[in-house]
Each structure stands twice: as C-alpha cells, then as structure tokens.
Design goal:
With 121 residues, the protein is an alpha+beta fold. The protein has one domain: Nucleic acid-binding proteins (OB fold (Dihydrolipoamide Acetyltransferase, E2P), Beta Barrel), CATH 2.40.50.140. The protein is built from 3 helices and 5 strands, in the order αβββββαα. A hairpin with a 5-residue loop joins strand 4 and strand 5. The chain is globular, with a radius of gyration of 14 Å. The protein starts with a helix and ends in a 14-residue tail after the last helix.
Length: 121
Amino acid sequence: MVSDAEWKRIRGRLRFGQVLTGTVVKVPRPGAIGVFVDVGLGVGGFVDVLLLPLAPEHWPTEGTVTAFEVWWADERWQLRLKPVDPAYLREDFADYAARWRPGWSAEVGQPVEPAPGAADG
C-alpha cells in the first residue's frame, strides 16, 4: 500500500496515454467486471469491462504480459488502464471514445495529476 502523498507523487509522473507494460493478475468475473493488472508502480491497475472485447474469451488471461495505456487516475489508489493491443480492446473503441471521452486524443500526453490549484480529475 502507498500513502496519499506517494500516490500523488506517482500520479505526478504519469501522462494520459502513457504506455506501461503490465501483467494481468486477476480476472474475477470474465465478461462482467474487468481485469486487474500489475504495472509495477505499487498501486493496482485495472481495465474496466467497458474497454475490453464483448466476448470474454478474447480478454487477456491471468499471467498475460502486454502493454496498457494510462486511461485515468484520480484520488483513488488505482490506475485505470486501456489495452494497447487491439485484440484486447473493445471492437468499437473509436466510436466508444468519441461518445464517452471525445477529448481523449487531446488528453494524450497531458499530465494525469492536475496542476496545483486545479480541480482533481
């Protein structure tokens, strides 16, 4: 476990879209929740079911080592990830992102940790 200060420090080094290599460590309910990923930062990583293929048999399995992009990180001690490999990404990701996160392409490369005095995202 990390402290709030350590999590803030970790977040301060991360950028949206930053690619991290991770190992899938748990797939608790294939098709229902998502997958937990260890990216070696001392906090858990998670890929939400909404970013994974509709068919759970196409999800990465426990032990899979692959690349993930930083999708979100807020005050909770968890890094939200997006698979880089299209085989592990929802088939209609472009449409999904356009609808639910239309500014994603502009966010890529931006710091995850808000600037001092900015609202926490």
